[in-house]
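Human: We require from you a protein record containing the residue sequence and its fold in token form, and nothing else.

Assistant:
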Amino acid sequence: ETSLSLPSWGRLPETLPNGARREATDRRRGESNRREPGLPGRLFRILWTVPSDISENTILDSLREREEFLRQILASTEDCIKILGLDARVAFMSENGMRALAIPDFELVRDADWLAFWHGDDRIAAEAAVAAASAGGTGQFEGYFETLAGEPKWFHVVVSPMLGPDGTPERLLAVSRDVTAARRDRTLVEKSASLY
């Protein structure tokens, strides 16, 4: 079973939304210039808008609610959603995405080279999409993929950047939509048209 892996956002901003300086807040906790103790920095960065006097348990409860909300969003779409590193290696794949590709266990593709999923011209198109997203743009292509179960499928793929606090790409979001049926219909229409 795959788990959500939230981005690493780095340090908190110098000034919090309530006007307090980060250093002052840290000193009250006895943690000068360090992240909130007991919380992974990548998670606490998401919650930096929470008042400084809130309890750690409340923060964790809020985080769990947000993760569950995100899980529900991912479960509501049949698209294959993947988070890639800038090197195009797979860091996360949605459950519906694994189902579409007949991948029984995320560990089979964790840290795999996503570009290796594609071949020939599709590989070239995937590389161009990754390059565009890594530069802050958006890349897309339509490519052929054979699932682990041997089922041939066509996907429309969009690759976009996930920006870090400084506005530069930190990770890549790749969303693949199964367009096999539409592709098959288009092929049938083209074959029919060629008969006349």
